[in-house]
Amino acid sequence: MNQAGSPAPDAATLAALIRRVATARDKQAFAALFKHFAPRVKSFLRRAGMESGAAEEVAQEVMILLWRKAEHFDPSRAGAATWVFAIARNARIDHARRAKGLPPQPEPEPEAAPSAETLTLAAEQAARLRGAIAELGPEQKQIVQLFFFSDTPHAAIASALDLPLGTVKSRIRLAMAKLRSSLGEVP
Amino acid sequence: MILHHPSPETLLAYAAGSLPAGQSLVVAAHAEGCPHCRAEIARLEAVGGEMLEDMPPESLALDAFTDTLARLDQPAPRSPALPRQADLRLPAGTLPRILASAEISRWLWVAPGVRYSRVRLPWAPKDNVMLLRVAANKRVLAHSHGGAEFTQVLHGDFHDETDRYAAGDLIEEDEHTNHQPHAGNQGCLCLASLDGGLRLPWLTRLIRRSA
Q: What interface predicted TM-score (ipTM) does this complex get?
């Protein structure tokens, strides 16, 4: 486990830790993952508008789901942070439904094998993406962030930034086109 | 070949988890058959992953970790009972896999050659989703929308005043669209999510007359 103050583990280390949970039910690996992800997931949920107690509860749920689903983690399809993000996103939606007395949406069966055309968004591509995000201007980065945290994105972003809806839409398009071109994809 | 895809904002909202459940279901159905959109969604989720990595960590309660450890080996909640699904007498593999957890009603008559089946999502029972089947060369009534309408063509094709749409295509329309879909020679089967319901001129007239 990392000592307090040590640098955050990199994407490859995180992926290896999830594999250890999957193959060996390794609780030390889980502890390291908890230390890295739980505070970030809590922070993500707080920004999405959840109050502190609920964010803490759902962050713990996300970590339990990580433990249970670890064997479905396929590092050739998605990086560790991407995989945890998807779990946290779904847990946030399920939490909102539970508050209304509604059941969660069952997850579709995982595909048997990664399909050939699936992008390999593994560790090195995550690094490229990180570089691309760093190169976005502060304004565009803020819009992308708001989009990922807010429940009613367009309207919330428009009112948070005091911009007309159309401007928000075109700025998101622009930011996403930039990210895509930095990843070497044809927009 | 798929010519009509969800808009970039729709894919982003889907990846961010902010799309309403009905629309999200239709986008998932599209992605099942569209490698292009699957790859784009994977890219967008990777952006979400980076946003998560970027979060300033917010510490949890002191006992949060031991509390979580103690719960790790509790059994996972049982998956919900299989939803009620009427037999729509469609060839196997016609319906997208994402529909497996939805309730599906039998075919209901709308107009000559036009039938629909109500798709109810237990996790979002108010979202208005349906399967629509239009016989060869029949038309759906001209209508506009109270909100967004997402339509995924599952089989056959249709055209309206602006374009032609075939199996695999997803069509996004908003409250400004007023159209009259017209099925092609093989008829047409669609999965649609309707926000705010349909606005049918004849229904409005009927209501006015009875008022």
A: 0.89
